[in-house]
Amino acid sequence: MVIRLKSVAMSAVFGIVLCTLLPQLFAENVEANSTFTASLDLENKTGETFDSHTESPAITNTSGAEVPRTNTVDPLSACPDFPGLQLPGTVVKCYCLGNEVFVDGKCQPYTGAVVPAQEDWIYTVEAPVEKYNVTIRDVNCDPTKYRSFNFTKGQFHMRSRGDMVLLKGAGELEGQRINNYCLIHHLDPGGDQTWTMKACVPIPSIPVCCPFGYAMKEGSCQPAKTPKLLLPPVLANPSGSHLNWPGMKNYRSELTCDSEPMKTIPIAYKKSNLVSLADGVKQVWTPDGTRRRVYYPCPEYCVDGIENADGSIDYFASFCYQDPKEAHERACQKGPCFRKCCAYGSSMDVHRNMCVPDKNANFSPPVATDLTSYNIAIGYPLCNNFAETGAGLTIDSDGRLDLQSRQYPPSDFCVDTFLDKDHREHKALACGDGPPAWIRVKSYLLPVCKFISLFFLSITIACHLLVPRLMADGGSFLLCYAISLCVAFATSFSVNVFHEYLGDSSCVNLALAMQFGFIATFVWLNVMCFEIWRKIRCLANHKFPTTYSNGFYMLYGWGIPLSISIVTSAMQHLAPDNVYGLVKPYIGISRCWFRDDIGTLLYFYGPISIVATGSSLFLGLTYMNYKTLVRNFMKIGDAQRNKGEEAGSDKKIASPKLPPAVITSPIQDFSTKLKLFSLLVFCWITEVLSWKIPPMELWALTDILNGLQGLLIFIIFLLNRHKRALVEERFPLPFNLVRSCLRLKGKPTVKQDNKSPQEQENSTSSTISIDLQRQN
Q1: Which of 431, 463, 484 represents a domain boundary (last residue)?
Q2: What is the phi/psi pair of residue 61, to 5°?
Q3: Are 713 and 457 in contact (CB under 8 A)?
Q4: HSE-up of residue 377 (Cα within 13 Å, Cβ side)
């Protein structure tokens, strides 16, 4: 009995000691490791509910505040291990065979089972399952490495390289690549086939360069103020936006660079980013002077964070980097050389268009001499544009590629083993001719021309706002026209200059604004053509021109383009993909504009063509009425002369006259509108022709004129003598400076009288009179 009491007492004491020491040991273990896990919420923008694994409940301290959960990992552990890509042409199903669907917990035959596949880079099609090798394997996501999701029809498709890509319906995870997945084919309540994907999305694990309190500087870890937990912005895809990932981890990765110097750059959007791909987080960087992204997987990069005085954190990525041109020159210093596309032990996968590990790699390209006599540099050709070449290549003794009666210098090609399933063949990636010289010049010249147009459009707008008399007789319509074209050119200029820094939403919004601006330009020109037709028609019919409310014109001029932009935006964001008979704009897919011709025609060129046709009709009718007005004036003039001859040569017969502005203003407006319309139609016709008729150099002059529309409109505005006089009366200094410059050059200047604009107009139009009494 005594022995039993002693045993119980010793057990109790041991339990108390153990309970006391374990938390301290655990806390010390957490402090000793530099790997942490963040607990942040990821919200789905679309409101869809994803089934994820159950996370442990939040831990709170004594004050009730939530304490971030941590996950300890060996600080010197290797890179996270994620499965590679599925084999091209293979689809993974969770339970049933390819021609079966899962209904009520059982597999049953189904004719015509399909897979949401990718075609033509972005289109999603329903491809028959028979086209693929079906592997049956359920997935169970390791909660320490993955988050578990269920995605439904319309939220994903399969790429030809074998992985799944999430679509816009997946919310913030749009563009995420997934390798670890399986499909479930089942039937919806209506009995139609649908599908679900069980997916394991990797939890981002960030390699940290230095331990807590240190950061990488000049190639070594030096003391710095750093946060314990690094939470850098991580993208779901190279073109996506930054997300706050739940469960983000850190682990120590000691980066050493031997043959190449270490480079440290800030993590900045569109320049250098961390991207969560299916095989882990990679550093994606676009070197200066190139357009091709460079991917650095773990352990080829690491990240540091430095805390600023205001509490913000700047993140930096470090990696080993040697300028490709310098590395190529160094490799070629001591003899003939050429480039190998992939590192040794890797080959080029044709379907994935990327270098992949190859256990059977045997690099032995056809060379003129022994392969060991060449110096080999690693990497793609030193150009921005290159493409795969055909077979039958040879490399001469100087390292040049002989292919199809053409020679490429060593810097303009790379050669490697290309894998096409089980087939291996030595091919090359060779530089193309590149864009024509005019295309390169155009990329710099057009933004300058558009900036000049914006400057003169701004002057035109300012003149109308500062000289209220310009707003009379339809001047407000010309102001709206200039504002519309200013919006169009400002957005077009922004896209041309800042396209590399635009996010997806900014790209779409700028495209919609550009569409609105250009369509509004044609609509307001249509308003001006209608208004001048109405006025001259009244004069030709011996009537005073009637007036319409400006509110009606404003509703039409701004309402039509706004309605078209709203419909386009709704179709862009709400319309489903690949529905027969439904044309989705697909803005921002490959550029900040419509993806294909049918969308451009329906949402842009179509409305413009309809409005431009109406303007052409109004101008044609205006010209006919103008000729009628001239004939009436000539008849009245002949009648006046006959009356004068009958009454005697010394007696003049006066006839009632219209107020001068009633006659001269519409005639001058007709001339202005005709010039504006001719300019706009000419620009757009040449734009379409240059798009379809090569070569591009043929349209160099018209491209420049299109970019200078704002300047040309300003000149047309000043050619209107009445408007020019009003502006000169308000701002005489610029006109005096121009006259002074012309006088210094010895050119005669037109003598200006001192009459006011109204007196000049009365004088100019004093010879025009029409008998308004001749009405039946």
Answers
A1: 431
A2: -90, -170
A3: yes
A4: 28
d(CA 112, CA 182): 19
| 650 and 518, same domain (yes or no) | yes
Tokens for 578, please give them. Answer: 């690949």
* Residue 498 backbone phi and psi in degrees, to 5: -110, 20
What is the token pair recorded at 189? Answer: 């309540």
- Output the pTM of the full model: 0.55
The two three-digit tokens of residue 377, written as one number: 């540099």
Q: Contact, 660 vs 762, CB < 8 A? A: yes
Beta bridge partners of 294: 285
Residue type, 626: Y
Q: Residue 570 class from Cβ within 10 Å (0-12 exposed, 13-18 middle, 19+ buried)?
A: exposed
Query: How far is the C-alpha of 128 from the C-alpha of 643, rounded, in Å?
Result: 92
476 and 620 housed in the same domain: yes
How far is it, in rounded angstroms, from Cα 311 to Cα 227?
10
Neighbours of 746 (CB within 10 A): 6
- The angle subtended at Cα 133 by Cα 173 and Cα 137, nearest 5°, is 60
How distant, in Å, are the alpha carbons of 67, 70, 214, 274 from that of 227? 16, 14, 10, 18
Q: Residue 665: inside a domain, yes or no?
A: yes
Please name which of 457, 479, 456 lies closest in space to residue 468, comparing C-alpha atoms: 479
HSE-CB for 629 with a 13 A CA cutoff: 23
Q: Which residues contact 413 (CB under 8 A, 6 or more apart)?
A: 338, 339, 381, 386, 389, 401, 428, 429, 430, 431
pLDDT, tens digit, for every residue of 596-648? 778 888 999 899 989 988 988 988 888 888 777 767 666 665 565 566 556 55
| CA dist 26 → 21, 57, 72, 155 (Å) | 9, 19, 10, 42
Q: How does pLDDT run across 366-375, given as a tens digit for each residue?
A: 898 888 889 9
Q: Do 99 and 168 fall within a single domain?
A: yes
Considering the domain architecture, whether residues 150 and 189 belong to the same structural domain is answered as yes
Cα–Cα distance measured from residue 486 to residue 521, given in angstroms and rounded to the nearest whole number: 9
Residue range(s) defining the domain that contains residue 417: 353-431
CB count within 10 Å of CB 392 equals 11
Q: What is the DSSP letter of 605?
A: I
Contacts with 505 (C-beta within 8 Å, 6 or more apart), sequence order: 241
Domain count, the chain: 4
Distance of CA 708 to the CA centre of its chain: 24
Amino acid at 398: D
